[in-house]
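for the recovery benchmark. tokens below, seq after
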């Protein structure tokens, strides 16, 4: 039966056909796709449409393209899936309401992660958290290093969850809120306040006190948000 495509936006149609073959299992992870010439003949379209379709599938993480080799089916990563949202999120963050919404989403995510850590973290994971805390405390006075170790401390909670989706969400949110972090950390006393909050969060998790860990994380992130809006000369969220 002919598979020739006769509709507009040809590369979208080609991408949809290849995606269907992947999702149906006709093409499995690691399998090479047909050559560009074979795809052109199968779908009755030109080389530009095939190449645009392959590039769009690569952006979704469904295939990987290596120079000089045929494209292959890939296993999408959680981080890769979220990376595609970056440009749209950055546009959204140009509006203060978008920043507030993302701050709220981060709050809910990190509160949930710290509760889980307090309830289930192993002794080795608590030790990892302590090492991250101490690295952050030692970085006071070095803004760039403090920022990196701040991010690393918070990421430990995503790692403790063992769920790569939470790790990817955390990584994405940290990137999306870069401007917030850099604005707040240049506020006088911000490093001291953050280090103090991190120590309180660690101690609550170490005691396996989920309620206290949640309260400390919530207070910390609310303080960060308020510092940001004050630095921008705007009213903090209620």
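predicted aa per position
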């Amino acid at each position: 039966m002919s598979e020739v495509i006769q509709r507009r936006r040809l590369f979208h149609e080609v991408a949809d056909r290849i995606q269907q073959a992947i999702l149906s299992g006709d093409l499995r992870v690691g399998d090479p796709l047909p050559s560009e010439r074979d795809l052109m003949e199968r779908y009755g379209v030109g080389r530009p449409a095939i190449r645009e379709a392959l590039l769009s599938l690569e952006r979704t993480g469904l295939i990987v393209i290596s120079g000089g080799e045929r494209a292959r089916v890939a296993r999408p990563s959680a981080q890769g899936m979220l990376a595609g949202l970056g440009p749209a999120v950055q546009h959204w963050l140009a509006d203060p309401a978008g920043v507030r919404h993302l701050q709220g989403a981060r709050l809910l995510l990190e509160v949930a992660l710290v509760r889980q850590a307090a309830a289930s973290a192993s002794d080795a994971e608590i030790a990892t958290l302590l090492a991250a805390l101490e690295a952050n405390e030692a970085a006071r006075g070095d803004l760039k290093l403090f920022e990196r170790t701040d991010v690393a401390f918070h990421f430990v909670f995503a790692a403790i969850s063992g769920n790569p989706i939470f790790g990817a969400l955390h990584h994405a949110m940290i990137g999306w809120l870069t401007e917030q972090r850099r604005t707040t950390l240049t506020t006088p006393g911000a490093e001291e306040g953050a280090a103090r909050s991190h120590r309180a969060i660690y101690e609550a998790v170490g005691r396996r006190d989920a309620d206290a860990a949640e309260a400390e994380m919530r207070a910390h992130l609310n303080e960060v948000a308020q510092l940001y809006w004050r630095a921008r000369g705007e009213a903090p969220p209620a």
